[in-house]
Amino acid sequence: MKARGMFKLLLQDKLALAAAIYMVFICLVALVGPELLGKAAVSINLRARNAHPFHIESGWLYVLGSDSLGRSILARIIVASRNTIGIAAGALLASMLVGGCIGLVAGLSRGALGQVIMRAMDIVMSFPSLLMALIVLYVLGPDPINIVIVLAITRLPVYVRTARAEALEIRERAFVSAARVMGAGRMHLAIHHIAPLVLPTLLVIGALDFAYLMLAESALSFLGMGVQPPAITWGLMVAEGRSYLNVAWWLAFWPGLAIMITALCANLLAGWFRVANDPALRASLKTKAIVNA
Amino acid sequence: MRDESKPLLEVENLTIDFATEDGWFNAVRDISFSIGHNESMAVIGESGSGKSVTANAVLGLLDCPPGRITKGSIRFNGEDLLAMPVEKRRKLYGRRLAMVFQDPLIHLNPVYPIGWQISEVCRIHGMAKADADARTLELLRRVDIPHPQSRALQYPHQFSGGQRQRIMIAMAMAFAPDLLIADEPTTALDVTVQAQILELLRDLRAETGMSLMMITHDLGVAADIAGRVLVMKKGEIVERGTTAGVFASPQHPYTRQLLADRSEEYRSAKPLAPEPLLRVSNLDISYGPFRAVKNVNLCVGKGEIVGVVGESGSGKSSLAGAVLGLRDISNGSVEFYGKDIRKLGKGELKDYNRSVQAVFQDPYSSLNPRMTVLAILSEPWQLHPDVVPIAKRVERAGELLEMVGLSRADLVKHPNEFSGGQRQRIAIARALALKPKLIVCDEAVSALDMTVQAQVIALLAALRANLKLSYLFIAHDLTLVRKFADRVIVMKNGEVVEEGDPEAVFTNPSHPYTRRLMDSSPVPDPVVQRQRRVKLMVT
Hints:
The complex is a heterodimer.
Chain A: H1 2-12, H2 14-42, H3 73-108, H4 112-126, H5 129-140, H6 144-170, H7 174-181, H8 186-222, H9 234-241, H10 250-276, H11 279-292
Helix pairs in contact in A: 2-3, 2-10, 3-4, 3-6, 3-8, 4-6, 5-6, 6-8, 8-9, 8-10, 9-10
Chain B: E1 9-20, E2 23-35, E3 40-44, H1 51-58, E4 67-76, E5 79-80, H2 86-92, E6 97-100, H3 104-107, H4 114-124, H5 129-142, H6 148-151, H7 161-172, E7 179-183, H8 191-208, E8 211-216, H9 219-225, E9 228-233, E10 236-242, H10 243-248, H11 253-261, E11 276-287, E12 290-301, E13 305-309, H12 316-323, E14 331-336, E15 339-340, H13 346-355, E16 356-359, H14 373-383, H15 393-403, H16 420-432, E17 438-442, H17 450-467, E18 470-475, H18 478-484, E19 487-492, E20 495-500, H19 502-507, H20 512-520, H21 526-538
Parallel strand pairs in B: 3-8, 3-9, 6-7, 7-8, 13-18, 13-19, 16-17, 17-18
Antiparallel strand pairs in B: 1-2, 1-4, 4-5, 9-10, 11-12, 11-14, 14-15, 19-20
Helix pairs in contact in B: 4-5, 4-7, 5-7, 7-8, 8-20, 9-21, 14-15, 15-16, 16-17
């Protein structure tokens, strides 16, 4: 019943629907793309070097152009999607989940624990994140899992602080007092009352962070501590194409566009999710429709 | 320029619609009224009656959309405000037409000193800075803010509620407007402070000859200050006339009902020598060096309603918090069935949590906005699974809703689909879910309209009779407690100053504070109120 209601709302919101379709599509591409086009992405075709986009004399794979070794940009974008989405989404989920939980604990504890957590987060925040990432990756090795962990740690404070601030405000509301009067413990309060109200805010921040993480990963790659060639990501493609911007703009443009559209769709979906999960906002949506009618 | 023969404000056939979930809602329907020069008029009605919407339309504060004015005209000094260009209208607002709002804390900017905010009004209308500052001091002095020179540099949070309202009034008086619209200016204030604010408004009117449009749901306030009243219901004016005339012989059934609400008796047969349920002894609650509750003793018997009355800061909510286990007790004890609640074992604490429930003041924050009514009512059973088996919870939740006067179909709705009074009913249903013995009502009806208040009180009284409940009923409204409680306790600055049978306390108060509280509370009778006012001024 609830899922069906949410789906109906999605159908009404055209932009969110388009974003959802794109996200499903890109996830499918990330799942099966590398298997289908893994070869094409690395095969060197010297006759099609630096091919301009929108010419398909050398085959449809070259519709977005090719790089200086004649590798198809389209194939490379498709193959890179798995690493890009995987790393960004993995780091995002990890930091949101862990950060959210820590933030709730900090917000609900009235003792020293909350202070300890917040000071620890201050330390993480005050440390230049790129520097920390470089050191950790230097020690652990630039493995995708390690990159996910490092990126997650650098984004952690944002979620901890937000979750804590919201939790501090919500725990003073009367419905939380009412639950406490019934004998509810902290666990019950956190799960039933505070987390559901904190989640939408975290999701919106998360959607903004998604693009940031894709680019942060490319920064690491640029410094040689990110994903290692021949593996590719969109961020790495942008970084590689940067030096050819004046002669072959398409090298950086297409992967950049992919990052932008994905980030945009993540934002649209997060915004829709926030509205769909808030009864009051849902009602205002209907009101708006009436004004416009 | 001022033509005294014509009315100052004329509203004709005003109709305002609002977009809602279910389509266009008619908030104000075809109303016409006028206010003359040097006249004071009260608009009475409960929330949703369209009284604030009307005032906002006059001042151009209506949000469009979702609102829209579909018909009518608003003329000020003969000029149509709705047809006037925005620039010209802006010159009138704040100068000739001013407004005072209900909650001064949210209408004052927290990051600017109050002196700056008052002089801003002057500067907006082209006064030089030095003149504006001088005028600010003059205004602050006029509204009786002590040490205006230094106080002008302070920020809103450094003032009490009553002082903030004075500052708002000072702002509105900056240009000595022809018409002051006051939207529930005293609703958020204690009765003694309310009396002072009303006095100030009356004085200002006498000095400047301005007209006053007072929007209120409190009949006592209307009787106190207005020469003429309009009674609004569901967007229409159902009755109008002089205050004396309307209060003496109300014509419309709704007005009669409004006037009757106050005089109803809710007390059932009083239990004789009730068995003690809750005993508070020598209770102290401190927040740092501040002692909020000092050495309070009280006892609630089985089936008894004990009213605790006091102004804000009297420590009554801290007392409620201590009984509910939400506040730490610094000294003394709270005993339930003879056992100190701080020394209860785990199982006993669970029993205590079942037996003592709460209904809080703000119906908008006391229900989780994300939960359905069913989830809200089932929450107590999640925490105490043995009370109602899972299979029977929907059924039982439906029964609870019917018990508080709502319908079973409401179970699937969310809190935002209910009015304040309905939400408070849901909160009461939740409090009943665990079959408690004592319900602590912390200002449970203070945020509600008078008619809704009467309904909720009647519900609480009926539940008490049927379920043998006890209430610790905390309120600042004396009249309410008088009609409802078996025993009353008056608190001031954390101390109990008077205790006893409500009729005895009210007819013959022994403590001067109790007497002052009662004298400050306006009576919905213009004649009596005038006599009382004279008496109050003399004392």
